[in-house]
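Entry 14. Structure prediction run on the chain below.
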Amino acid sequence: MNIDRMGDIIAFVRTADARSFTVAAEQLGLSRSAVGKRIVRLEERLGLRLLHRTTRSVSLSDEGAAFYERCQRILADLDEAEAVMATRKEEPRGKLRLDVPVSFGRLHVLPILHRFMAEWPELVVNVSFNDRYVDLIEEGVDLAIRIGGAEDSRLIARTLAPHRLVTCATPEYLKAYGTPVNLNDLADHSCLAFIHGGRPAEWRFTRDGVIRSVPVHGRFCAGNAEALRDGVLAGYGIGQLATFLVGDDLRAGRLVPVLQEHATTGEPIRAVYPSPRHLSPKVRRFIDLIAENWSPSPDWDKR
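Output returned:
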């Protein structure tokens, strides 16, 4: 295979991954038209249409999907061969691009990351804090720590810890307004809601083995989980918060759990990364370090 054919295949795979000629061109350091010409040349050589193009999107044809899978294996084999032959030690180095949720990342990922960076001084880290789900491939992110989220066949996910929710309030609030003993009682309380998509998010409970969503209202709502926690601690009402956020408050007695028999769990906390066959040392070792710190159960869930 000559170098031009390999370049055509790489242009095709990058375009299929990004679903965009423009993004693929930026990644390859080529013009958009140069990437398009390479793929046209590849299609003409194969006698097949590999991509469907519209003015707004790019998608794989049936033949293109089959060819894409084969090309991915070829490129992964080349990457693996280079990794095996590399003379450099299997140590984390270079740039690690990491994406984490805002509150959870600051409270529980950054302390581990700081230790990781201290151990590996040749590592440079770029951290983005997002409560939206970024496209790791399109934005060039090596690793994301996510709480739930949609499945993506292009990514590998490894579960790291459970995500538990607790409904709670201060002892002073419960003394003044009473403790709810069933879900219907929440209608008589100030319930602090998280703002998602411009609207208060409903609370989730388990009753008779079925997940039930309950609309709530109260004196205070916020689009930031830590601000919501502060509102609950200020005595504005009852909140439903992640244990990773209020674990210390529960242990210290600053907050008291209620309706525990109806407690439910959210989607687990996962490490998510693009799926090459050879995972880089910086990503693999950081994931392993997080898993080691949060196993068998994370500190925030300990009583």
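The mean pLDDT is 90.
Filed with the rest of this week's runs.
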